[in-house]
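Shall we go through a protein fold together, starting from nothing but its sequence? Label the sequence line and the structure token line clearly, so we can match residues to local backbone shapes. Would you write everything just below, so we can both look at the same thing?
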Amino acid sequence: MAVSKQVSEQVSEQGEDATTDDDVSSLSYEQARDELISIVAALEGGQLGLEESMRLWRRGEALAAHCSTWLDGAEAALTEGDET
């Protein structure tokens, strides 16, 4: 099964509100990053329809923001450790 179809099915199983904060915020950094990588591959494959592409794009945006928050927190913790 192609990656784009797998990702599309996973997001579809999560429903229309797959980008809710609760759903994304429960993911670890690694889970969010891996899902984001899969979504990017699916979108780059160009085999999805417009509606599905837009849904995956929104999910990807939420995952990217979640990863950024994790990385910002890690950077702050490292910086704080250097100051003590």
Observations:
- The CA atoms of residues 2 and 74 lie 34 Å apart.
- The helical segments are 3-13, 21-25, 29-45, 50-83.
- The chain has a mean pLDDT of 84.
- The two ends are 51 Å apart (CA to CA).
